[in-house]
Design a protein that fits this description.
20 strands, five-stranded antiparallel sheet, single chain, Immunoglobulin-like, five-stranded mixed sheet, flat, Arrestin_C-like, Arrestin C-terminal-like domain-containing protein
Length: about 400
């Protein structure tokens, strides 16, 4: 009697391109049998791991292989057990994830996540169906640490002969360090060529994959995007204000893994015959664009890339506001005790023989009176005469 299953399949309910931390993966197991069969257990397992492996030498086929594996997620749910139930109904199961590295497949390692269903039957091998699902690690490029600008500078003396050395300098800057795939990086740079040869400016984005296994490391570096400028003649200067470099569709940076790291850098360089000059600007490729985080929307967000980000450009400070007047800071109640009454003002005007405010206007902006030297020091003769007239007691 043929005891073979007609169908055993695992279907994810949401046809999504990727899942992120905090989200749930939902699905169902489809089981179709030709007749009544004996089932011991049916379970669903979810897991993920990162694997690193490389061979020390390609020339020696039996060379030692360095490898390491980290299993950072594992979960299981038993949906059917022969001790408690004898049939299986379609169910809804949720698996919650902790912060995990993003799915990745590199030169010497990979990060994978999967869900599998296992059907156990007596006197039969286990039947397994497995489905992989991608996971992304959301990186918000509007984080304060990714909004920092860089303005590196580098220079080099180029030896054209035994007795002659010539200077070539490079200064570059970017407005922030966090970008997403599809965005444009505005590069402001100044190239000074004081040599007697032509030099070519260039900017590249490099992806660096670092793999760790048993205390050893392996690095793989590749260029993912580049832009080239106009050759600079001898004793000339060229500026980029700015020159734009578009980021292609690439994997986001992986910085939270223990054995696999994916990092990016923007290298601005000068191609010099028999030499070279470069500055390295580290960048982070994220998944949440800066427009969705409140940093800028509409025309303001698109206009920030066309601004002049040269470090030599200084913005004038905004003019300061005038301080408030005394009348604006002192309330009327505070002035009432010091305000003169109408009867008192009339009395003073009769004594001065006119309006009191005319005297006030006449004395406005006048220097203070000079100190009088008369009467400050008493006369010694008068003092002695007064002392003589005083009776002695």
């Amino acid at each position: 009697m043929n005891d073979k299953m007609k169908m055993l399949d695992l279907v994810l309910e949401e046809q999504r391109t990727a899942f992120s931390n905090g989200e749930s993966v939902c699905g169902r197991v489809l089981l179709q049998v030709p007749h009544v069969i004996d089932v011991r257990a049916l379970g669903v397992f979810a897991g993920g791991c990162e694997l690193v492996s490389w061979q020390r030498s390609r020339l020696l086929p039996l060379a030692k292989q360095e490898s390491d594996e980290v299993q950072f997620y594992s979960d299981a749910h038993e949906m059917l057990n022969s001790l408690y139930m004898h049939f299986y109904n379609v169910g809804f199961y949720v698996f919650f994830f902790r912060p995990l590295p993003a799915s990745f497949s590199g030169k010497y390692g990979s990060v994978h996540y999967w869900v599998k269903a296992v059907l156990q039957r007596p006197l039969s091998p286990d039947q397994v169906v497995c489905k992989e699902f991608p996971v992304i690690n959301n990186i918000d490029v509007s984080a304060p640490a990714l909004l920092v600008s860089f303005h590196p500078h580098s220079e080099k003396w180029v030896r054209r002969s035994i007795f002659c050395e010539q200077l070539v300098s490079l200064r570059a800057s970017i407005n922030r360090t966090g970008y997403c795939s599809g965005e444009t990086v505005p590069i402001c740079a100044k190239f000074e060529n004081y040599s007697s040869c032509f030099v070519v400016p260039k900017a590249c984005i490099y992806q660096t994959q670092t793999f760790l296994a048993k205390g050893k490391s392996k690095t793989y570096k590749q260029e993912v995007a580049s832009v080239r400028g106009i050759p600079i003649p001898p004793f000339k200067t060229q500026r980029w204000n700015p020159n734009e470099l578009k980021i292609p569709s690439i994997t986001a940076s992986i910085l939270n893994s223990t054995i696999i790291r994916v990092e990016y850098s923007l290298v601005t360089l000068l191609e010099i015959p028999d030499s070279g000059l470069a500055v390295d600007l580290p960048i982070v490729i994220g998944t949440i664009p800066i427009q969705q985080s409140g940093y800028g929307t509409g025309s303001n967000a698109s206009g920030q890339y066309s601004a002049d980000l040269s470090p030599l450009t200084l913005a004038l400070p905004q003019p300061l506001k005038a301080p408030p007047t005394y009348e604006g800071t002192v309330s009327g109640r505070e002035c009432e005790p010091h305000a003169a009454s109408a009867s008192h003002l009339e009395k003073l005007e009769r004594e001065f023989g006119g309006q009191l405010f005319s005297y006030i206007e006449g004395m406005r902006f006048q220097p203070p009176p000079r100190f009088s030297e008369v009467g400050l020091v008493p006369d010694k003769g008068a003092d002695s005469k007064d002392e003589a007239q005083q009776p002695v007691t």
